[in-house]
From TrEMBL:
Lineage, top ranks: Bacteria, Pseudomonadati, Pseudomonadota, Betaproteobacteria, Neisseriales
Pfam family, one: Cofac_haem_bdg
Gene3D superfamilies attached to this UniProt entry: 3.40.50.11550
Protein's recorded name: Haem-binding uptake Tiki superfamily ChaN domain-containing protein
Domain of life (superkingdom): Bacteria
Entry-linked CDD domains: ChanN-like
Amino acid sequence: MRVAIVFSVLLGLAGCTAPGPRAAWPPERLAAHRVVLLGEVHDNKDGHAGRLAALTRAVVGGWRPALAMEQFDRERQGALDAARPRCGRDPDCVIRAGLGDDVAPAASGWDWTLYRPLVALALDYDLPIVAANLSRADAARLMREGVAPVLGDAWAARLAEPPAELVAAQRREVEAGHCGKLPAAVVARMADAQIARDAVMAAIVDAYAARGVALIAGNGHVRRDVGVPRWLSAKALSVGYVEEAAAPGAFDVAVAIAPQPRPDPCAAFR
């Protein structure tokens, strides 16, 4: 039980690794792109506010993308769709449906005060809300049992031999994101789960590319070098909202945001 809890916590942190280089937000509309990947540092309110403002300007200007959200697990799509007629413009009603009756928003692992405005925007402009994440339960099972039992044989074949440089990069990200305190075997399994999560997100985004789609996800997921773009069929614009410099080329656009004060993330590993 203790190991399962640790894995759950660690999986929740995956995909939230170091962001890329700073740059100014470009003036052109997001609507010029069919697929946009909008990153975040999960607890940075300034980044959330800036992303919401950019997305709102594009939607008010006529863009009507589906809103694919990491915050909802893929198996909740049916519940999200069923909730729309009865929820009307009540974002809290939709959030509860997307999480499930047995999951309180406060206990979901997400700060819904930061994501509620995105759900409200989707409801106000009748944008599809897409559940885009591989759940923590599926990711933990994938770490234990492999890809095939969780995603099926086709996915197992697709993910059987990911590029060696991608595997190495993901392992470095997982190791750095956990302060170098994880055993090598755990790092390897977590990297495999992260690669699978990005590939699944990419497939979901691709399914909505024809109509237009904006992915809302952590910076680690929208990075060009290690994230969702590695698996996309559609051409996409990757936008990171970043607190500090990292590898050049991680994003097409990097929007500088003020660092959020937070405790030492490595303290828990000591």
